[in-house]
Amino acid sequence: CGEEFLDRQPIDQISTESFYRTEADMESALLAAYTAIQSQQYFGEGWRIDEVPSDDSRQNFGSAIDNFSVTAGAGEVLNYWTGRYRLITLANVVIDKAPNAEISEEVMNRVIGEARFLRAIAYYDLVRIFGDVPLVTIPPGLEQDLLLPRSPVSEVYDLIKEDLANAASFLPAERDNGRATSGAAKSYLASVHLTLREYESARDLALDVINSGVYELMPDYGDLWVRETADNNRESVFEVQFAGCESWGTGNMRQAFFAPWNQGITKGTDGWGSLVPTDPREDNPNTTATDIWEEGDQRRYWSMMEPGNYYPTLNPGDGGYQYPDDGAGGASSNIKKYVIGGGSDVCFMSTSQNGSMMRYSEVILIYAEAIVALSSGLSLNQSVVDLVNGLRTRAGVEPLEFLDQEIIELERRREFMFESKRWFDILRKGEAEAVMLLRLHGRTLDETKLLFPIPASELEINPNLTQNPGY
Amino acid sequence: LNVPEGPPSSVRTITGQVTDAETNEALIGVNILVKGSTSGGITDFDGNYSITAETGDVLIFSYLSYISAEYKISNQGVLNVKLEPDAQQLDEVVVVGYGTTKRSDVTGSLSSITSEELREVPVTGLDQAILGRAAGVQVTQNSGAPGGGVSIRVRGIGSTLTAEPLYVIDGIPVVNDNSVSRSQYDGVEGNVQASNTLNTINPNDIESIEILKDASATAIYGARGANGVVLITTKRGKAGRSKVSLESYVGTQKLDRQVDVLNLREYAAYYNSNNFNAIEEFQDLDLLGEGTNWQEEIFRRAFNYNTQLTLSGGGERTQFAVSGGFNRNEGIVIGSAFERFSGKINLDHQINDRVRLGNSLLVARTKEDITLQDNSRGVVYTALLFVPAAPVRNADGSFAAPQDEIELNFINPVSRALETSDINRKTRLLANFYFEADLLPFLTYRTEFGTDLLFAGQQTFQPAYERGQISQRSSLQVSKNENRFWINKHLLTLKKTFADKHNINLLAGFEAQEGGYEFLFASRNDLPNNTNLAINLGDAGQQNNGGGSGDFALVSYFGRANYSFSDRYQLTATVRADGSSRFGANNRYGVFPSAAFAWRLSNESFLANWEKLDNLKFRVGYGAVGNQEIGFYSFTSNVGAVTAVQGDQIITAFAPSNIPNPDVKWESSFQTNFGIDLGLFNNRIEIIADYYSRRADGNLLPALLPATTGGLSAPIVNVGEIVNNGFELTLNTQNTTGKFDWSTSFNFSRSTNEVTNLGSNGSLVATVEGLPVTRTEVGQPIGQFYGFVVDGIFQEPNDVTEAPFQSIDTRAGDIKFKDLNNDGIINAEDQTFIGNPLPDFTANISNRISYKGFDLSFLFQGVFGNDILNMVRRRTESFEGFGNQSTTILDRYTPANPSNTIPRAIAADPNANTRISTRFIEDGSFIRLKNLSLGYRLPQNVIKRLNMENLRFYVSGQNLITFTDYTGYDPEVGSFNQNPLINNVDNGRYPISRAITFGLNANF
What we know:
By secondary structure, chain A is mostly helical. In chain A, 43% of the residues lie in helices and 6% in strands. Chain A is built from 18 helices and eleven strands. The mean pLDDT of chain A is 92. Chain B is mainly β. In chain B, 6% of the residues lie in helices and 50% in strands. The longest helix of chain B is centred in the first third of the chain and has 10 residues, at 264-273. The model of chain B is unreliable at 180-192 (pLDDT under 50). Strand 1 (14-15) of chain A pairs antiparallel with strand 32 of chain B.
């Protein structure tokens, strides 16, 4: 027996050396990166971190995150972190391997651009949730330093902007497969600039997307949430692709968490009503998810199940579903978004409905917010007001005469309720104002609680990390 | 010179029969020698002999394992001789790696279990046959399910990857990797019940089991011996009259004890006190009965049945042993059962005086009906939590579903056990062929070719139903797992004695082996009905399939030298070099040397006059052995398939799966052993004592990397060091002999474990269902329970405010945890080591008594000083949701009942009273009457009339009495899916049953 007998290479896996060669290989590696966003840690349960602390929602029966008493050892915190670094790692692999693949420069640029887009959206979440974070830009290997310290927020944003700008220049404007486009990159970049209060850039990028002609509003807000038209429609800028009951990790889990408990909507054991809307309480002088609405706003009906609401497409066999008058599962109202009922494409913890990340309506609101900010907080610019009124009229409420910061904030809340936008909008107000708002909302916290703790296990493994103050 | 002829010639023929003094069986091949001459003979198949001798001559009858007898010839022509079996174990032949040796020549540490001991107890699996029989060997069943997983630890835990020994069955190495046939009920990795691969071996076929413990004994297995080696030899034919033996038993088993949970009346009172939505029926407690006792519903009296027929015998040149057996073992949980058909054909043939060949062949077909266990969705676990208010079935006979009023998120445990079917079928062929030739009288060449083929198939079906609030679509999953393995050996053995004093026994060998696996799985949903379970009938639109394969190879060169001088000094030296495909080209080969020396003091002339001293031997040994069980390809980096979605299409994409370590190399274990063997009073007292120190070095550990590395499998690095020190004592006594024959065997083992290095890994954390339960840290034993320390229960609101901060919702009645770092706040930093799952020591004692035809034996098993983490109690004392609770919560804290043991009832557990803490750590020590067996052997005269050789009836009981403080079902919890880091975590484990068995052994 010679060395050949002992030289065994994997059979059901492909060695890294022989992969990442062709365009098909690189496409495949890119697609693998997208699976990270589909995961439980990323989209499936990301709301535990970036939605629960907001003033629109609360966790049924309470949670440490809701009470701003989360500790570094909390599993939700680690999951959020892990899910995003998974995406970053898989994107880094593509960015690292593409230059050595046997592909044209054009393909290489597109592949790298797409990977950089994915990396940027993961860092965008991380930097807002954790502040300074380790900046990983190459695939992991034993020969490198795997115990990186945290990089300052500004450096993280520099990378995000660089990545998104690169993606914006190399990605195609339109694709029919739900993957990232230059429009998606520009929209995210506009959002980043807005967060950093770089209003000119935000305005220009948003306008660029608006003028591209690629996107238009769906006629009815409900079109965004019913099976027939929800996925990859004309309003969609970027969304997580899901395919329902195929295999674990390819389905959207949110119905399981959001559907009211024990109502038989999902035709399984999976309606947990974990996240529920906030409602007015005596000790709470501030606004909640249930008292910011104007009469007749369709967005309320599609965001929340409230007593009196009737949904004909849920439980169609029983003539539709009527939300009980006394609430369900210990809550007086529940979330409607992503609750689509049972069916052949619904399994335990998974539906096929895509997860919305960025819609044309947000681009409009980014644009409007930038304009308002650049116009000293008040805009009468009719074309901008018309754009926002487009959202309002389709929701069934009266058009506006002018725009100001407060109006934009409210419209964002109504348009994207329970879509992990509100918490970040609260953070954008600045520490003092955010803390005041949340205290008015009945919570006990100081400004250190606006950032989440670095996961305890990461600190334990990586001595170069430091913990955020207050934890 | 007329010299008289002398006395009339007395030379004549003497004939007779030689039999066993105890059994009266004819002895074949007994050596008869006329003392002082070279003439002699041997007995034939019927034990008869014929020899020519003179009056006054002395005949010496000698036979292996019997005491030699001398008879002086007088005038008789017939001399029948009864030979006494030699009570001395010293000349017993034991199996060692790649050969056999006399026990007296053993320099290392090994334990043997004979077929006698094996036959005492009717057992389904060989693991149970080993249990309690050997010092330093701890057998724990991972599950009490029939055919369920088992883990065996030889001299502690020396690896964080696997601590299972290598099994060598008739020369074929087998690793008992339970994961080959793991239940696929839930698909939750690491949390499902594993099945025992070794259950394909029929224990009735086993002649002897030898467990090699120290390095000098295991080093000949080099790369695979670090966790000890279990040598299993099956029964072979002997020349002589053909023998037919029948072994059969029937038995019954039941649950030892129930765990107390609330009955309906108690539950309703608890429910009412909790301010849940009022239930009308619960308002008048006097009208309520006991409700459903779910434990009675899921546990049953189970029956088992075994029969085995063996035919053995042969002529001078060819011997055979053929057997067939059937075993059926119902489990005490409804829906679980195990069945095995097994067969064996062992042949030996002598072509001429110098050339021999033969084979052993074992085939088995097993079928296991598995019920989901060992996790929180398991049948045992949910039976404790399911409310007593729910009926098992509705009036129409269908299974009852959760009621509207009591909104349960559980599935009816009876329906879960009976409706969901999970059937595991295994077919195994173990075959070994040998060819042996004496090249010279002292030099033998032997080659072996063996194979181990294991085909495992699993079919899991969940039926469709609509039931109350729950509906389920049907799903069928089938999987096929094919494991193949072959081994080829070439051995040269030289045995020679020089000058009557120098005995030399040399072995040189070469061995090549190759193995691999392939598996396939497929699943479909929505089958047309719940009876035709075939994959083609499901909805093709939702099919899912997959598979995988891998292979490995090992090449080894080895040699062993035994030298003994005048039966006083014995030296064994071994070296083995292994090349394994599991390591990259950089570090492919490992060399494992060992040496041992023994001094047989009792054979020294200065002790020759000590008649009471039969044996005194000192042994010392040192050596290195290896471990390679790290998966097949961790030296290289791979991309693996992941399921991606694009648009509405499912597409297979490829992502890197691991971070490679091209320099990964063998894990080595260095072991030092000191031993004493002492035999006194004609070996009626035998003491074997061993002290060992085992240092596992370069332990293969997955590097602990931060999550910023993206969840790729961590590289395996050689960093860890674990030290096991231990002491083992075996004491065998022959208390009385003669008609009333009583012998006792006692063994004691103590082993301490300490992790002395983990490289850059601060600690290894092991989780069960996502919950960290153990931690492995330098300076501590492996896999210690880790959590908070309970400091009583807050009795008054003031106690809460004065104590360190726990949570804003902490109230009187909540558990007070210790602020270990005194920082005024209870957080993750206040966790510490709260329990050790490893025992301080284990001790077993067995007795064997025979009187006339009766024989009685019993074995007490004792495990002391180990802790158990009772995860079940975390739920039955949690007040969480609407589930049932333990009766202990009747004494929960209320302002009127200031309990200091059970906290207040509060939903959502805001103070995290159920966090892992000393609250759930229990003492797992136990003493158990493992076996008790009473047999009766019919007297010889009756037997003869029945034309039989032997007929024995027996009644036997297992696990009859257990003394323990543990509050769960069963303190014998063991390792979780063989994971060395998770021991004694009771997560709804299938309890071991109490069994009574009636059986017979008949030989014709």
